[in-house]
TrEMBL record, chain A:
Keywords: Thiamine pyrophosphate
InterPro entries: THDP-binding, Transketolase_N
Domain Transketolase N-terminal: 15-268
Cofactor dependency: thiamine diphosphate
Gene3D superfamilies: 3.40.50.970
SUPFAM superfamilies from the UniProt entry: Thiamin diphosphate-binding fold (THDP-binding) (SSF52518)
Organism of this sequence: Winogradskyella endarachnes
Family (UniProt): Belongs to the transketolase family.
Protein name in the entry: Transketolase
Lineage: Bacteria, Pseudomonadati, Bacteroidota, Flavobacteriia, Flavobacteriales
Automatic annotation (TrEMBL), chain B:
Domain Transketolase-like pyrimidine-binding: 10-175
InterPro entries per the UniProt record, alphabetical: PDH/Transketolase, THDP-binding, Transketo_C/PFOR_II, Transketolase-like_Pyr-bd, Transketolase_C
Record keywords: Thiamine pyrophosphate
Cofactor needs: thiamine diphosphate
Keyword Iron-sulfur belongs to the record: no
Name the UniProt record assigns to this protein: Transketolase family protein
Top-rank lineage group of the source organism: Bacteria
SMART domains: Transket_pyr
PANTHER family (UniProt xref): PYRUVATE DEHYDROGENASE E1 COMPONENT (PTHR43825), TRANSKETOLASE-LIKE PYRIMIDINE-BINDING DOMAIN-CONTAINING PROTEIN (PTHR43825:SF1)
The keyword S-adenosyl-L-methionine is assigned to this record: no
Similarity-based family: Belongs to the transketolase family.
């Protein structure tokens, strides 16, 4: 059993990384990043079965694909602090010549990233392809993916959702970051999507909810349940109920910090709410 | 003058099907995907022999491009199959982000390119695909001329690491390239030697260029015909060496003059050796219904049109 306190401390440091990265270049997406911090920490510190080092093919290990690439700050922080590249490189986020592009890419060869994302709606198809390659390779490891809830407004997702169940892609766990926010407001204001559970189930997926998507114990328990559902002829969907901006009080429960950087004073406030644990980069 | 004849006509898409079938037997990493057009793409043989390596995606081209990108992660070499229109414009952003920018080893195989799919009309014809695909950084663009060359190109691209757009068509056209000719990506093939004009053609227009060269020869005009099967990377040297001799050039393609082979050639010439050039291509227009021959005549994409263009460009020397 992982040490929950250690994972919580890890998450606190990740929150510091996120707002420091975004503050430095006065751009980037802190809200969704903070909302998924516990999920990423759980994934890379406990859930994923990965090999040492990094190779593109990822045969013999679990794979993760980030479809909503704008939450790159949390991805980069957790990848760096999980050993994929030097933590100091977080200093280069969004700067000229960086491997840490605004949205994740394979183009600069950043270890840990296997597909470019940012233009929304494409990641589930890629994850399905990787999952089908695993089956061809007789590789019984799993493929995980993460998608924004607003991102499901892109039609390609529904092509992919229909395909994954029809073709029994049952080595795939796709998680939806259900923060109910998108750039122009709440998802219910912009384009209400009704019950995602009902939609995924109607498309033939197994669905579980993680109601406390910012609680590491709840995430570990829920993802273990998701994993137990794999291999049964159906893809698995996790509806991860998160709070956008979680862990920094003035950023929580609003879409206002989707793509906005904190100023100096706001940064200081945010950092004070999340004391240094693993050491700043 | 070297002359070319043929004993058989076949569709280039069948060359793709035959090449894919051979890859199925020789390269265990090759996988194929199709968006509900197996028969049109002639993929049956591969599927019959390798059912576990075939993915029927359904009518969902965007999903197909993403799945193809994902299949490369794990070492597969995916060949996607659908019409050229649905292989490019419909899924441009999926190709751009998940395949080209991500540097994935996907082979986008596109049938029914250009006007010659005929009666289905402009919704299914595409005259913009070469331009769309050549603009993507790192994308190789190939448009072979006959059955044999399409088969050879299909086999060759499996050994090339990186994204490729392979364009072919529906109508039966003369088979005139040798069945054993090795396909070299980016290496133009000089078909006839000439001194008065260079004709560089791609795809179905290569045979038309050879037909034109016969007519021109009878009129005392010596045409050097070059088969540019690879539009990107372009064989700059073959083009420059030829115009050094001839002093003028005609480009011929089943594509819009905006964004096609002709513009790529014009760029090379403008940079290295400004040379009079005429374009045999469509003029910023959509196609329409009709037989392939009717359409090629109406839109000026046949041997007659090439002869006219040659006469015009020679007068500009």
């Amino acid at each position: 059993m992982p040490n929950i306190k250690e994972l919580n401390d890890f998450t606190t440091q990740v929150r510091r990384d996120i707002i420091r990265m975004v503050h430095k270049v006065n751009s980037g997406h802190p809200g969704g990043s903070l909302g998924c911090a516990e999920f990423f920490v759980s994934l890379y510190q406990d859930i994923l079965d990965t090999k040492d080092g990094f190779d593109m093919d990822g045969i013999g290990e679990d794979l993760f694909f980030l479809s909503n690439g704008h939450i790159s700050p949390v991805y980069y922080s957790v990848l760096a602090r999980s050993g994929y590249f030097p933590v100091e490189e977080l200093n280069t986020f969004r700067l000229l010549n960086t491997r840490l592009q605004g949205h994740p890419t394979t183009h600069e060869g950043l270890p840990g990233v296997r597909i470019a994302s940012g233009s929304l709606g494409q990641g589930m198809s890629v994850a399905i392809g990787a999952a089908q390659a695993k089956k061809l390779n007789n590789d019984d490891h799993l493929v995980y993916s993460l998608h924004g809830d607003g991102e499901l407004q892109e039609g390609q997702n529904w092509e992919a959702i229909m395909y994954a169940s029809a073709k029994k892609v049952d080595n795939l766990i796709s998680t939806i970051d259900l923060n109910q926010q998108q750039i122009d407001g709440s998802t219910d204001d912009v384009l209400p999507m009704g019950s995602l559970r009902a939609k995924f189930e109607a498309f033939g997926w197994l669905v579980i909810d993680i109601e406390k998507g910012n609680d590491i114990e709840a995430i570990l328990k829920g993802m273990a349940e998701a994993k137990s559902l794999t291999g049964n002829g159906k893809p698995v969907c996790v509806l991860l109920h998160t709070i956008m901006g979680n862990g920094i009080d003035f950023m929580m429960h609003t879409h206002a910090w989707h793509g906005k950087a904190p100023n100096d004073e706001q940064l200081a406030t945010g950092l004070a709410q999340n004391p240094e644990t693993l050491g700043d980069y | 003058m070297k002359t070319y004849t043929y004993t058989e006509k076949k569709d280039t898409r069948s060359g793709f099907g035959a090449g894919l079938a051979e890859l199925g037997r020789t390269n265990p990493n090759v996988v194929a995907l199709c968006a509900d057009l197996i028969g049109s793409l002639k993929m049956n043989e591969f599927i019959d022999e390798n059912p576990e390596r075939f993915f029927q995606i359904g009518i969902a081209e965007a999903n197909m491009m993403g799945i193809a990108a994902g299949l490369t992660i794990g070492g597969k070499i995916p060949f996607t199959g659908t019409f050229a229109n649905f292989s490019t414009g419909r899924v441009y952003d999926q190709i751009r982000q998940s395949i080209a920018y991500s540097g994935k080893n996907v082979k986008i195989c596109a049938s029914h390119a250009g006007l010659t799919l005929g009666e289905d009309g402009a919704t299914h014809q595409i005259l913009e695909d070469i331009g769309l695909m050549k603009m993507l950084p790192g994308m190789v663009v190939i448009n072979p001329c006959d059955y044999n060359q399409t088969k050879a190109a299909t086999i060759a691209i499996a050994d090339y690491e990186g994204p490729v757009y392979l364009r072919f068509g529906r109508p039966s056209v003369p088979i005139f390239t040798p069945a054993d000719q090795k396909f070299e990506i980016g290496k133009a093939i000089q078909l006839t030697e000439g001194t008065d004009v260079t004709i560089v053609a791609t795809g179905h227009l290569v045979w038309e260029a050879l037909e034109a060269s016969k007519v021109l020869n009878e009129a005392g005009i010596s045409a050097e015909v070059i088969n540019i099967h690879t539009i990107k990377p372009l064989d700059d040297k073959a083009i420059l060496d030829s115009v050094e001799k001839t002093g003028c050039i005609v480009t011929a393609e089943e594509h819009n003059h905006l964004g096609g082979l002709g513009e790529s050639v014009a760029r090379v010439l403008a940079q290295h050796k400004p040379t009079p050039q005429e374009f045999v291509a469509t003029n910023d227009t959509f196609g329409e219904s009709g037989t392939p021959a009717q359409l090629m005549e109406k839109y000026g994409l046949n041997a007659n049109a090439i002869v006219k263009a040659v006469n015009k460009v020679i007068n500009r020397k």
